[in-house]
Design brief:
There is one protein chain. This protein is mostly helical. It folds into two domains: 105 residues, no CATH class; 145 residues, Up-down Bundle (Four Helix Bundle (Hemerythrin (Met), subunit A)). Helix content is 45%, strand content 6%. It contains twelve helices and six strands. The strands form three sheets. A two-stranded antiparallel sheet has the order 1-4. A two-stranded antiparallel ribbon has the order 2-3. Strand 5 and strand 6 form a beta hairpin. The protein is flat, with a radius of gyration of 23 Å. It starts with 26 loop residues before the first helix and ends in a 16-residue tail after the last helix.
Length: 327
């Protein structure tokens, strides 16, 4: 089974397992049907990221061993060559500086923002600062609108619902920001960044002659605000209220958050429902296959118990291919 399609696999079993579930079954149906659902957790999975800026920005220290310095020098040259291939050789020094300035693209769940944020980043690197500035501001507004439209039906009984249920779009940012905060959707750090981006939007989108003299500075600020919003709200590998803490190498969603509207809408569609013995293998096309034990038995594990089972698992028992269960 793949990370995008966690329900596939061979075999018939004496009782329902995750492999018996139809491909179009919802997460709620799967969890309610399989007896071992309480011993599985959603694996946070988001492969939209670009960490080359971290490599490019690493300072090679004089006291490092020669082979270490050579390795980092080669890595940085490899990144530079990849930037030339992607953005062209003309003005490559400025392009590399811009690429470094906007930082890494954070690990994020796949949603509507990924493609547009990549276009914003590309514009800034290519020194197209006004498109980058306007694009980042527009993307911020788009994310707020998506969040409101996607979430509001879950909150019909709240006082805030009456302020947002009739509209199909919102251009005054305070209403969606305040509403999403009240609903517990928007994290505090993301709200701070949205408000900072809102102020920049008002100054930049509406005519302001001063924009000419601060164009790169404003564009950079907008891109960084947008990057932080995505990292905070949609990050797939981070410390967040909905992630189990203390797991090694992978991140899982807390059981109590599995039915939260935000998680159901943005994380569940790309998160495989796995047990502690799951394994992974890449395909040639860049996708990942996920393999797992068919049945972990009856009963529920707490998040702490799941963490212990996962962290202390026997490597020999981890499923690394479409094989039968170990003897």
């Amino acid at each position: 089974m793949t990370a995008d399609d966690p329900i596939s696999a061979p075999g018939a079993f004496t009782r329902s397992t995750i492999y018996d579930m139809p491909r179009d079954a919802t997460f709620e149906q799967v969890r309610a049907t399989i007896p071992d659902g309480g011993r599985r957790r959603l694996l946070s999975w988001g492969m939209d990221f670009d960490m080359r800026a971290m490599t490019l920005g690493m300072k090679i220290e004089e006291h490092w061993e020669p082979q270490v310095k050579d390795m980092w020098g080669a890595n940085q040259e490899s990144v530079r060559q990849s930037l030339i291939a992607q953005f062209g050789e003309q003005n490559i020094d400025q392009k590399a500086e811009n690429f470094l300035a906007i930082g890494a693209k954070p690990m994020s769940v796949l949603a509507y923002h990924n493609r547009f944020f990549e276009q914003v980043r590309r514009s800034f690197v290519m020194m197209d600062y006004y498109p980058a500035l306007v694009g980042a501001c527009a993307l911020g507004e788009r994310i707020l609108n998506h969040l409101i439209l996607d979430m509001r039906d879950f909150f019909k009984s709240t006082p805030e619902y009456k302020q947002v249920y009739r509209k199909d779009s919102f251009d005054k940012w305070e209403v969606p920001i305040d509403t999403l905060e009240a609903w517990g959707i928007l994290l505090p750090e993301a709200a701070v960044e949205f408000r900072a981006l809102k102020a920049l939007r008002h100054r930049s989108i509406h005519f302001n002659v001063g924009t000419y003299s601060t164009l790169r500075e404003d564009a950079l600020a907008a891109v960084v605000h947008m990057r932080t919003i995505i990292e905070q709200q949609f990050g797939s590998f981070a410390v967040r209220p909905w992630f189990i803490s203390g797991t090694k190498g992978h991140v899982f969603i807390k059981k109590e958050w599995e039915t939260h509207p935000f998680i159901l809408t943005y994380f569940v569609p790309s998160c495989p429902f796995v047990g502690p013995l799951f394994g992974m293998a890449p395909e040639q096309n860049g996708a990942w296959n996920i393999f797992d034990k068919a049945d972990y038995g009856d009963g529920d594990w707490t998040d702490e118990e799941f963490t212990r089972e996962y962290n202390e698992r026997d490597p020999e028992q981890v499923f690394t291919g479409p094989v039968q269960e170990p003897e």
